[in-house]
Amino acid sequence: MTAPLTPPPPPHEPSHDQSPHSAWQASPVPEVVSAAPHDGAYEQHGGQDGEQDGPGMKTEVRQAAIITVGVALAGVLLGVLWWWLAPRVPLVSDGSAVYLKDTEGEQAVGVDGTFTLLALGFGAVSALVVFLVRRRGGVPLVVALAVGGLLGGLLAWRLGVWLGPEQDVAAHARSVGKGVTFSAPLKLGAKGALLAWPLAALLVHLGLTALFGPRDPDPFDEQHPGEDPYGAPPA
């Protein structure tokens, strides 16, 4: 006769105090550290990025105003050179009227051509100087070059006329006498020459910026090797 088998002890039932989740509840909860930078650090980093991107709008406007004044004042030198290098148009009086001494001469065309060539040279030089001083460029800088070049051309024109021969041709003819050759007033026949300076400055500055200006960083060059540029993890 065999003894009855002893039934296995019932499985240990966890008490309410020791629930399956008690161990999880008892484990210390790690402190979650925010990945976002501190406000002060973020502002400081933003300030550094702002400095790297370039000066603020107020600084650019202030620099543009200085460039405008400096370029416009260079018109004084252009006016002096125009008055000095421009050919003279000879006139002669017969006592009753004033005539061109050389009716087939091209001195009047040479006056306009001299101003245009000088203005083109001043525009190229001013654009080069501004680019070397301020390589980053910007809209205010371009506007300053255009406005300053136009004002410089106007100043050079009026200064050259003022430095040139007397504007009152009749009075000048009476003062020199009959049959005496004298120079006609210095004048700019083609007013479009006043645009030579700003156009040359804009074109030269645009070319220099395109060839030698700073480049924006390529986002694809900053990717790690083997990383998908579209954000997908590598295989």
Written overview of the protein:
With 235 residues, the protein is mainly alpha-helical. The protein has a domain at 59-95 and 105-213. Helix content is 53%, strand content 4%. The protein has helices at 22-26, 39-53, 57-73, 75-85, 107-133, 139-163, 169-176, 196-212; strands spanning 90-93, 98-100, 182-183. A three-stranded antiparallel beta sheet has the order 2-1-3, covered by helices on one side. α5 runs antiparallel to α6, α5 (107-133) packs parallel to α8 and α6 (139-163) runs antiparallel to α8.
The share of residues in helices is 40-55%
Average pLDDT over all residues: 77
Q: SSE string, helix = H, strand = E?
A: HHHHEEHHHEH
Sheet with the most strands: spatial strand order? 2-1-3
Q: In percent terms, what proportion of residues is strand?
A: under 5%
Descriptive keywords:
235 residues; mainly alpha; 3-stranded antiparallel sheet; elongated
Question: Summarize this, please?
Answer:
With 235 residues, this protein is mainly α. The protein has helices at residues 22-26, 39-53, 57-73, 75-85, 107-133, 139-163, 169-176, 196-212, and strands at residues 90-93, 98-100, 182-183.
Per-chain topology:
Elements: H1 22-26, H2 39-53, H3 57-73, H4 75-85, E1 90-93, E2 98-100, H5 107-133, H6 139-163, H7 169-176, E3 182-183, H8 196-212
Helix pairs in contact: 3-6, 4-5, 4-6, 5-6, 5-8, 6-8
